[in-house]
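Data availability (excerpt). The following record was deposited with the supplementary files.
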Amino acid sequence: MGRPFQFSTNARLSFLRRGLLGLGACGFAFDVFLAALAFDGFIELFSHKCLYFVRVLRFCITTMKVCSRRFNLFLLLTAALVLSGGCKTEKQHEQDKLNKVVGALRVHIEVVPDEMGTSQTISVLRSEPVLVTIAKEPVLTEANIILAKVIPSPGGFSVAVQFDEAGGLMLEQFSAANPGKHFVIYGQWSDKPADGRWLAAPLITHHITNGVLSFTADASAKEMDQLVLGLNNVAKKVHTGRFK
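Predicted structure:
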């Protein structure tokens, strides 16, 4: 048998130069370069995909936050509108109730009792009743009023009523013709008969030319506030004008 096959030194060098694939001395380097290049491309592609994916997630998260904030803002605005509407409705309801309050005021003149049935005797002032005979028919009513108001005073309050032109003329005539007598005033501040009584009997001391009749009422401030409100509601329906 021959000797085993052996590479000579030169053959070994030649083999290493050619490389395993016969690509020459640069074969190994070329193989490593291609592998590294392919791996590098994979890393870059993966990095871009991850970055894109993260950005998408961030975008989605930011969008959700923005949507959440906008939703909360819309919710608050809606709640505010509902509450505002509720307040307005409640206030309007309250105002409607006040506008429905009515009042009545009748001014009679003191007369001498007669047998014709045109007069009647009434009692004024609950704490110290006084009997007064008056004409049954009033000389002035709430239909002649253009404005009523409660006037505070050191001892309490008084009520002032201004009449329209026709009422002012009647007030002037009766005050001029009946000095020393009384105007007797009946007031009612709701549609309940119990919320009405003879309020005052002011003495006629002078000729009233300004169309304003003032008196101190036998009533509480609350009752007179309601009476004034009712009288003004009636006046708004048929008259315009203010105290001068």
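Summary of structural features: The helical segments are 9-18, 27-99, 165-177, 221-238.
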